[in-house]
Amino acid sequence: MSRIGKQPIPVPSGVEVTIDGPAVRVKGPKGQLEHQLVGDVVIERDGDALNVTRADDSRSNRALHGLQRTLIANMVIGVSDGFAKELEIVGVGYRAAAQGPNAIELAVGFSHTVRFDAPEGITFEVPAPTRITVRGHDKQLVGQVAADIRKVRKPEPYKGKGIRYVGEHVRRKAGKSAK
Known about the structure:
Layout: E1 9-10, E2 16-20, E3 23-28, E4 31-36, E5 41-46, E6 49-54, H1 59-80, E7 83-90, E8 95-98, E9 103-107, E10 114-117, E11 122-128, E12 131-136, H2 139-152, E13 162-165
Antiparallel strand pairs: 1-6, 2-3, 3-4, 5-6, 7-12, 7-13, 8-9, 9-10, 11-12
């Protein structure tokens, strides 16, 4: 049995879980998420916890067991606490400016500024001109939006300029060598 899949998912107070066949809906103070179970994976409510089980030990069900449990656990955490990704901007004159909670404007070395609008459920914070925090209740969407912002100006290996995740290490290359 999957080590991840057999762990119960604790449901905190204030979070409502609705199981309707293969559809699982999780509603909490931060928002609402829905997921369709894949394969022969079944979810059952056991008091204030959820248990994910699989019908048999076929290869596809074993592969999906832990995945489905983790996706549902991330939904429960997201609607109760939320998720955040932090980005930092490195470079002379590179900066970000908040345009309300749903948009940011990036000055990252282009002749124009780049405006980035947040999809529904995502908010931006700019605590410093070189820091961006992406917040939301859907872990996958938070990660995708942070990756899209990073894609505007990836960190380059020669001077290290660009947008990177906080704590990301950029491997530097040596430049041209003089004769």
